[in-house]
Every structure is written in structure tokens, then in C-alpha cells.
Amino acid sequence: MPKLTPPLVAPSLLSADFSRAGEEAAAVEKAGADWLHLDVMDGHFVPNITFGPLMLQALRPHVKIPFDVHLMIQPVDLFLEPFVKAGANHLLVHIESGPHVYRTLQHIQALGAKPGIVLCPATPPEAISEVMGIVDIILVMTVNPGFGGQQFLPSQLEKIRKIREMIEKTGRDIRLMVDGGINHETAPLAVAAGADVIVAGTAVYGQKDYAEAIKRLKSFS
Ligand code: DX5
Ligand code: ZN
Questions:
Q1: Residue 39 is a catalytic residue
Q2: pTM score, two decimals?
């Protein structure tokens, strides 16, 4: 395998100890995390419920790294402003979340945050062709969204490759992220396919030494 550029690492707070959320967020920042990934779930778009803007507001004083907010909620528009006000830097919305995603992405831009688009495993890469000119981030789900600790779906690697080609064609600076089942074995596969940011829940918060875990994800050793 040719030498790969180390990806940015965004630990997902979903696998942290929620009773010590502030400490857990600060701990991964100290351990070398690039972004903090925050999974917002509504029990409707996905079969699980997590937290809302109040949680971000409570966490914000504890960390400086960007809040990368993955919105698994439907409808989404009503909550964009509260999340930005609470400290979100990136707002990632699902292409499957409604018929007016373009408007949602414009709204995120107008609020001063970076808009991102997310694809579930069953969604083809072509589904996002019309939003390539507006997004700063594309997130390919490598598990079905809703829970941490699931197994990486290798079927998504071809989609990552195709989206990397689509990004190159735009000439725009778009980050390509992967989320779900990422560990030191699957990260190199995703990065070789074209991903440059990896989300990791279990592979960081499930480990004793967060710094070691992040280093391992970046170095593929
Ligand atoms: C799942 C979430 C992921 C999750 C990843 O719906 O979007 O961010 O926290 O957890 P791991 O890395 O354990 O698969
Ligand atoms: Zn996520």
C-alpha cells in the first residue's frame, strides 16, 4: 500500500462516559483530537435518542477544537440556529432527511457554520451531486446510523472512492469523512479510498489511553 496521508481524527462523544461529558471532551482534545464529533439523535430519524443544543452549550467552555455536529434528526431546519448558538462549527445533515436539503445547507452557511452532507449506507454517491458546490464536508456512513460499536461495512469503500473523484472534479476544498466501525484496521482502508477525516467512537473512548488510540489511528501502526 502506498504511504497514506494521516487523516484528521474526530472522536465521537457517543462512546464517552456521559456522566463526565465535559472532562471526556477535554481529554480527547488534550490527547490530540482534531475535531469533536457530536451525534444528535431524535428517536425518529434513527432508533436512538442522545442530546440537543443544551449539551453543546455545556461542553463548549471545556474545549477549543471545532464541534462537528452530526444531525440525525427530522425535521432539521428548526434546530440549526440553536445548535450554532450553542457552539456548533460544522453542521452535518443527512441527504435522506428531507426534500429541501439545499435550503438547509444554505441556511447553515448563512448562520456562519460549515455545511456538511451525510449519506446512509443505502444512498448512492450520485444523490449528492447537486450539493457539491455548497458543502464543505461530506460524511459517508460506514454503519447504519444510530449506535456506536457497530461493524464497518466494506461495501462503502467504493462509494468513498467515487465521492473522492467527484470532489476532485469540483476543485473545491471539501473534507471527506467516514463514520462507523472505524478502528486501526479499517481506517487505512477508508483513507486509501479517499477519506481524510475519520470519526472514531469506540476506537478512542473505548480505549484506556486516548492519546495512544488517536496516534494509532493517525499512524496506522
Ligand atoms: C453512529 C454515529 C457514530 C458513532 C460511531 O450513528 O454516527 O458517530 O458514534 O461509533 P463507532 O466509532 O464506535 O462505530
Ligand atoms: Zn456520527
A1: yes
A2: 0.98
